[in-house]
């Protein structure tokens, strides 16, 4: 990269750095970015960079592949119904151990390690801490009309963001694992979809942005044709597309849609397989993924002031 190109990148980033200073950005961390060490390091550097420029990142993570690996080590079979992991009490023990005890600690340590002189400014939490999340058991409906029992799988029913806001005010970076106590049975802890948890938290925090890292470049008009990547889309257009999309994208995009409808100014789907994808999406005018806003596609094309 030539000095001229580097200079242009910095010049282009400056107005966005100024625009988002002091704003809360909720980032869902997942996909290959979570299991590839070089991409994990790239992500940690991006989060530290955002905080150093006055943006307030909040990270929510899942850990499906790591949970499956650990279950296999213990000789426990992974079972899925309706796209959800069937979570017995035995499986839930592993889920909590992997999410809160392993992934969260590793990411906190990585962010702190790359943060330069400002050490130890990331803090690990789970949805169980300080009443952050509560959830109720989820069931899915078979085509026959019968309910499928998923065990200890939950849907968020309330969010209390006080502890997250307190951490942000002291300059910390919350790193949150997506488990939550059952609001109908305080002795149970439920496994919650991290995309959904990130979207609900973004709304509760009045976040400026919700950004979901995944293993595709964004929303495609004709998946998997890379030439049909949609860079900007309004919620009406996305709602029309939603039933036609790949099943794995539906929870992510539903979370984005709900967040934007409930006041989050912009939601983004970006490719976590690309190093520094977070910075490229936020600090370049064109971005690299798909931006979702309340306006129609035409209005988005006519108004490039918000990313």
Walkthrough of the structure:
This protein is an alpha/beta fold. The chain has a single domain (3-302), classed as Carbamate kinase (3-Layer(aba) Sandwich). The chain has eleven helices and 16 strands. The strands form four sheets. It has an eight-stranded mixed β-sheet, with helices on both faces. A four-stranded mixed β-sheet has the order 6-7-10-9, with helices on one face. A two-stranded antiparallel ribbon has the order 3-4. Helix 3 (37-52) crosses helix 5 (89-113), helix 4 packs across helix 5 (89-113) and helix 7 (194-204) runs parallel beside helix 9. The protein is globular and about 60 Å long. The chain starts with a helix and ends in a 5-residue tail after the last helix. The mean pLDDT is 88.
Write the layout of secondary structure elements.
Elements lengths: L2 H18 L3 E6 L2 H4 L1 H16 L3 E6 L2 H10 L6 E2 L2 E2 L3 H25 L8 E5 L6 E9 L5 E13 L2 H8 L3 E5 L1 E4 L2 E8 L1 H11 L4 E6 L4 E2 L8 E2 L1 E3 H7 L8 H12 L4 E6 L5 H7 L6 E4 L3 H6 L5
Parallel strand pairs: 1-2, 1-11, 2-8, 5-8, 7-10, 11-15, 14-16
Antiparallel strand pairs: 3-4, 6-7, 9-10, 12-13, 15-16
């Amino acid at each position: 990269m030539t000095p001229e190109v580097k200079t242009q990148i910095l010049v282009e980033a400056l107005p966005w750095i100024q625009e988002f200073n002091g704003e809360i950005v909720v980032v869902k961390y997942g996909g290959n970015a979570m299991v590839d060490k070089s991409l994990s390091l790239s992500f940690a550097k991006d989060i530290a960079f955002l905080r150093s420029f006055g943006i307030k990142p909040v990270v929510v993570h899942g850990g499906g592949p790591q949970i499956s690996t650990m279950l296999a080590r213990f000789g426990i079979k992974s079972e899925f119904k309706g796209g959800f992991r069937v979570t017995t009490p035995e499986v839930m023990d592993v889920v909590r151990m992997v999410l809160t005890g392993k992934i969260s600690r590793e990411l906190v340590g990585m962010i702190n390690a790359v943060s330069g002189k400002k050490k130890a400014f990331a803090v690990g939490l789970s949805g169980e801490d300080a009443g952050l999340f509560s959830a109720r058991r989820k069931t899915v409906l078979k085509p026959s009309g019968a309910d499928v029992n998923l065990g200890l799988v939950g849907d968020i029913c309330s969010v209390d963001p006080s502890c997250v806001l307190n951490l942000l005010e002291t300059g910390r970076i919350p790193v949150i694992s997506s488990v939550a106590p059952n609001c109908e049975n305080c002795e149970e802890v439920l496994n919650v979809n991290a995309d959904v948890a990130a979207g609900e938290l973004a709304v509760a925090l009045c976040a400026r942005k919700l950004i979901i890292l995944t293993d595709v470049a964004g929303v495609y008009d004709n998946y998997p044709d890379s030439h049909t990547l949609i860079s900007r889309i309004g919620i009406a257009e996305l709602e029309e597309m939603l039933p036609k999309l790949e099943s794995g994208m539906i929870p992510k995009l539903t979370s984005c849609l709900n967040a934007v409808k409930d006041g989050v100014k912009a939601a983004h789907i970006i490719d976590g397989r690309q190093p520094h994808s977070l910075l490229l999406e936020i600090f370049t005018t064109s971005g690299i993924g798909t931006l979702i806003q309340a306006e129609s596609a035409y209005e988005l094309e006519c108004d490039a002031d918000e990313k």
